């Protein structure tokens, strides 16, 4: 059986991270068609008896969409304000799209300190398990409106890895705007080849050209490889797919999808 297909089918608890570049078009506006298609596929997974937690970027993009006049202001206060406004817009969109399938959503906003304090992590776990048990989809994001350097997680690839480990997930799916990890930067090299299976994420990071970070997001391929290393250490595989492509998770389930699968220690 196709290993990508087998991994998704055999995973019951799935964390799906959705990147900013997936949720935005080339102009930086929210791509509602892509967002709705992702929700459709999450509903498919739930229909298969799987439990899903979303880690979603996009608050900043949604904020710019709501109040475009602040988009060019570089002051950190305005950036945090845009994220505060955009987080509401983002959750309203998820609420609307999931409601088409009779599914409720819940918002959880976190900072780095939440993962360092035992009582907070216990509260996060309890909240996630309760929501999942009641059929609600948690949508997790960093609390950008209050996160300064001292408490900032940094990027949602890391947040997704921390969430997957805390929840003891079976699989982390990272939806980015690239097809997977290539042996060299595909934007600069036409002959770059997709690496479909990675058995050692830490070693991979030292041997390939990781390119630059994304335009709208805070991370790049390096943060995705780091996230894979974090979850692989606990035996959780990570799958990197191009979330901008329609039905990419469905394609994976049908055995036709392409991406990069990072195997966890127990999965090898």
Outline the structure in words.
The protein has helices at residues 3-9, 20-23, 32-47, 59-66, 76-99, 118-133, 156-167, 201-207, 221-232, 248-254, and strands spanning 13-18, 51-56, 105-110, 137-142, 171-176, 181-182, 194-195, 197-198, 238-242, 260-262. The chain has 268 residues and is α/β, with parallel strands linked by helices. The chain has a single domain, classed as Acetylglutamate kinase-like (Carbamate kinase). The strands form 2 sheets. It has an 8-stranded mixed β-sheet, sandwiched between helices. It has a two-stranded antiparallel ribbon with strand order 6-7.
Broad structural category? alpha/beta
Low-confidence parts, pLDDT < 50 over ≥5 residues?
Answer: 212-218
Helices and strands, in order, run as HEHHEHHEHEHEEEEHHEHE
* Strands side by side in the biggest sheet: 3-4-2-1-5-9-10-8
CATH class: Alpha Beta
Q: Characterize the overall form.
A: globular
- How large is the count of helical segments? 10
As a percent range, the share of strand residues is 15-25%
Mean pLDDT: 86
Helix content: 40-55%
Say how many strands there are: 10
What CATH architecture do you see? 3-Layer(aba) Sandwich
Indicate the CATH topology: Carbamate kinase
Total discrete domains:
1
Major sheet details: 8 strands, mixed
| Cα-to-Cα separation, first versus last residue | 15 Å
- Radius of gyration, taken over Cα atoms and rounded to an integer in Å: 17 Å
CATH H level: which superfamily?
Answer: Acetylglutamate kinase-like
List the helices and strands and how they pair.
Blueprint: H1 3-9, E1 13-18, H2 20-23, H3 32-47, E2 51-56, H4 59-66, H5 76-99, E3 105-110, H6 118-133, E4 137-142, H7 156-167, E5 171-176, E6 181-182, E7 194-195, E8 197-198, H8 201-207, H9 221-232, E9 238-242, H10 248-254, E10 260-262
Parallel strand pairs: 1-2, 1-5, 2-4, 3-4, 5-9, 8-10
Antiparallel strand pairs: 6-7, 9-10
